[in-house]
Structures are given as C-alpha cells and as structure tokens.
C-alpha cells in the first residue's frame, strides 16, 4: 500500500520498489513506474497501484478419481504481474487518494482465476486416474498438468499475469480409505519386520552357537596349556628343590668347617685364658699369703709388745701398792675392780636420786670418822 501524506490541500505519494504506480490527471497519464514519489491534487488525480513482486497462492480443493474415490489436493502457485498496465486496465487496482488503500479486491480476483484454472486441469487428470495410481504418481502428474494448463491459459497473459512455478504438496484420500490402504502396507511391513526379527534371531542363535564353540575350544586349549603349565611348574619345583638341597649341603659343610675352626680357636683361646687366669690367681694367692704372713707377724709382734707393756704396767702397779703397805687382799680387790671397770659397758649418763645421795654421804661420813 502506498504511503500518502496531506499538505494544505495537496497530497504526496511515496511508492514502494515492488509496487507499480500509475497516475492519471484529467485522463492523461502523468506518472507511470515503480518506486515513484510525487505531489498531486486529489480532486483531479486517478491513482492505481499494481504489485509486481512474486506472490504465493495456496489452494486446496477436492477431486474424484476414476474409481470414484474422493481425494484432496494441496498446491501452491507462484505468480507475478508481468504487465502492470494491462493488469490495471483489466482489474480494479485503483487506490484512494487520501488513504492509499485499494478501492476493490483485485488480488482476490486473481486468486479466484488462478485457483479455478488450476482446479480444472487437476480434476481433468484425476478423473482419468485410479486411486492407487493417483497416490503413487498423482502428485507429479497433477503438477505437470496444472503448470502446462496455466501456461497455456490465454486469459492469464491477457490479464498481465505470469505463472512462475507450480508446486503440489500432497494428494490424500479420505481418512477411511487411507486407513484401509494403509492396512495391507502395514501388514506387509509387519511381516517384513517379523521376518527380519526371525532372521536376526536365527543369526543370533548361530552366532551364539559359534561363540559357544569358540569358548569350548578356548577352554580345551586353556586346560591343555594349564596341564603343560602344571608339568612345567613340577619340573621347575623339582629342579629348584635339588638346587636348594645342593646349596644347603654346601652351606652346611661350610658352616660345619667354620664351626670347627671357631671351636678350635675358642678352645685355644679358652686354654690360654685359663692358663693366664691360673697364673694370675697363683700370683695373687702367693701375694695374699705373703701379706697374711706379714700381717700375722705384725699382729703377733704388736700383741707381744702390748702384753709386755701391760705386764710391766701391772707389775709396776703391784709394786707401787706393795711399797705403799697395802695388803694382798686389798690389792687383789683393787685389781678385780679395775678388770671389772674395763669390761663394764659404757655409761653415758647417771641419775642419782636424793635417797642414794643421802646414803652415800652418810657412808662417806662414817668412813671418815672411822679413819680418824
């Protein structure tokens, strides 16, 4: 749709590159082309806008085959307006000078023309084709026939229309018929699937049998190799035991020889140590005996000297008492008291009670008086 603006009683039109504008003023063609932009007066202007771009027309219609089965056809026709002047003269492409909108419905008229023409040729093809053939090859046949029919239709060039392409997307029977036709195919597909399943199972069973045979052969071979391994291990064990016994014998002989040498060396060392210890003990005994003899001599000499000294002291003591006129009995008592005093135990302290002290003082007083 053209873009129209208002300015003080004038109008300005700005067209699109895909729209062909025709401007008549007072019956004369003033502007003619695509992508135009110009000023005009609405009271004297007659404007028409013809689209020149490619347009898609989708159509769906029903047809009947030669075996009286209804089918639906879905197709699309691509067309363009090749001669805008002829199209503007044959169809009403005039636009409102104030809004730029079409006054009529030219594209609907073109759609009706193309749909009826294409439907006529499609019905002509399908009416002579059975349903099975139509479902198999009907799409290509209908497309070729519709394209050829639209290309040969004289009214389309007279209206300035050029058909660019024809596409037929689907050709379908009624739902009940379609389900009935699908049943044998489904059964066949199911049979093929079952047969494929059985074949796959048979192949799987055969492969499992081959796998089981291979596993059995592998087990037999493994058992044979294990037997060889056991024999080899026994041989290796015997050989290792023999070598170990020989090594143990050599080791025992070496150990015995070493033990004998060690025993001989130990005996020799023990004998030498015993002899040295005996000599040392003998020397120590001789030295101890000599020392004991010397000590005995010294003690005997000391005892003799002490005895002589004591005898001399006692003799002198007796001689003193004799010279002093003391009788023999008193002397013996004094000597006995001295011996007792020597043999009495040591007395650290003496407690004298008043009674004892009084008795002693009285006795001393009596002895003093007797002496007088």
Overall form: elongated
Give the strand order, joined by hyphens, for the main sheet: 1-2-5
Give the ordered list of helices and strands: EEEEEEEEHHHHEHHH
Helix content: 55-70%
Structure summary, number of beta strands: 9
Describe the structure.
This protein is α+β, with helices and mostly antiparallel strands. It is 64% helix and 19% strand. The strands form 3 sheets. A 3-stranded antiparallel sheet has the order 1-2-5, with no helix packed on it. Strands 4-3-6 form a 3-stranded antiparallel sheet, covered by helices on one side. A hairpin with a 2-residue loop joins strand 3 and strand 4. The longest helix has 149 residues. The relative contact order is 0.05. The model has no long low-confidence stretch (mean pLDDT 84).
Notable traits:
9 strands, alpha+beta, 7 helices, 3-stranded antiparallel β-sheet, 19% strand, 372 residues
Quick summary:
This protein is an alpha+beta fold and 372 residues long.
Element layout with pairings:
Blueprint: E1 3-7, E2 10-14, E3 19-25, E4 28-34, E5 37-40, E6 45-51, E7 55-64, E8 70-81, H1 84-90, H2 106-126, H3 131-152, H4 155-158, E9 161-173, H5 175-323, H6 328-343, H7 354-371
Helix pairs in contact: 2-3
């Amino acid at each position: 749709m053209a873009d129209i603006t208002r300015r003080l009683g004038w109008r300005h039109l700005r067209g699109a590159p895909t729209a062909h504008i025709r401007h008549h003023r007072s019956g004369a063609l003033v502007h003619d082309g695509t992508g135009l932009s110009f000023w005009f007066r609405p009271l004297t202007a007659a404007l028409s806008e013809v689209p020149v771009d490619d347009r898609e027309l989708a159509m769906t219609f029903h047809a009947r085959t030669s075996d009286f089965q209804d089918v639906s056809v879905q197709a699309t026709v691509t067309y363009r307006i090749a001669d805008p002047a002829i199209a503007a003269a044959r169809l009403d492409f005039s636009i409102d000078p104030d809004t730029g909108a079409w006054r009529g419905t030219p594209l609907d008229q073109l759609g009706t023309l193309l749909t009826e023409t294409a439907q006529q040729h499609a019905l002509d093809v399908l009416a002579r084709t059975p349903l099975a053939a139509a479902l198999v090859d009907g799409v290509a046949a209908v497309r070729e026939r519709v394209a050829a029919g639209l290309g040969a239709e004289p009214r389309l060039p007279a209206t300035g229309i050029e058909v660019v392409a024809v596409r037929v997307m689907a050709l379908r029977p009624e739902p009940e018929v379609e389900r009935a036709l699908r049943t044998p195919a489904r059964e066949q597909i199911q049979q093929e699937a079952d047969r494929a399943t059985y074949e796959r199972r048979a192949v799987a069973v055969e492969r499992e049998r081959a796998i089981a045979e291979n596993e059995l052969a592998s087990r037999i071979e493994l058992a044979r190799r294990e037997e060889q391994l056991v024999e080899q291990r026994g041989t290796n064990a015997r050989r290792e035991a023999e070598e170990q016994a020989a090594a143990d014998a050599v080791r025992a002989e070496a150990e015995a020889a070493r033990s004998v040498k060690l025993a001989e060396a130990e005996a020799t060392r023990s004998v030498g140590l015993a002899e040295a210890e005996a000599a040392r003990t003998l020397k120590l005994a001789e030295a101890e005996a000599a020392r004991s003899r010397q000590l005995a001599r010294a003690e005997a000499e000391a005892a003799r000297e002490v005895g002589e000294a004591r005898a001399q002291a006692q003799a002198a003591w007796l001689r003193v008492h004799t010279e002093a006129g003391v009788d023999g009995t008193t002397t013996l008592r004094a000597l006995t008291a001295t011996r007792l005093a020597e043999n009495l135990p040591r007395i650290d302290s003496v407690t004298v009670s008043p009674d004892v002290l009084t008795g002693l003082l009285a006795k001393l007083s009596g002895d003093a008086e007797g002496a007088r």
